[in-house]
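Retro notes, item 3 of 5
We never archived the inputs for the coenzyme A complex last cycle. Fixing that now. Sequence and ligand:
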Amino acid sequence: MNISEEKVISSELYLHFSEQKDFKFWTKESINNFLVSKNNSLWVQRNHNEITGIALWSFNPDQIELIYIFTHKNHRRQHIALDLFLNSLSEITKLSVSPQPLKVFLEVSELNHKAIKFYEKIGFKVSRIRKNYYSDRSNAYEMHLDLSKLF
Ligand SMILES: CC(C)(COP(=O)(O)OP(=O)(O)OC[C@H]1O[C@@H](n2cnc3c(N)ncnc32)[C@H](O)[C@@H]1OP(=O)(O)O)[C@@H](O)C(=O)NCCC(=O)NCCS
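Structure as it came back at the time:
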């Protein structure tokens, strides 16, 4: 397996993920607009030539935010997301200037049980609940990971 950073998302790459029913929120244009900022990045994981996962990150001096991570349905529960998370985070922190942010931050719907299990497995803890955050009035969890516990 290998990961690479992509400066734009191609139509082919976008279709590969967006045709799956649990791919949420992002249009191809919104991803490419997001990637205009030099603080934001898209990482793609491939197994030989097959695309298995993507991760979107935002890097700021005070914190790193995981914006979205997605494993293709055919490749779930094979540690694809875990591998992609750790490798892309390691690349991002290597490229950055010091001092390093100490925390990784994310937001996830309280209804997204798979993702919450995944984040808890890595070591994320819920630090705040945002009530009625989503359009269906469900709550969002803000989760934090202390980087010193990871690397
Ligand atoms: C959440 C998601 C990224 C996990 O991807 P994955 O590649 O299947 O996850 P991994 O195989 O790396 O899982 C690592 C660990 O996380 C936990 N985990 C992952 N998926 C889980 C699930 N469905 N149920 C319970 N635990 C789960 C397990 O502890 C797993 O380790 P194990 O298989 O050895 O028990 C994937 O389900 C997905 O793409 N979901 C749709 C998109 C999404 O909701 N993204 C998050 C947006 S905030």
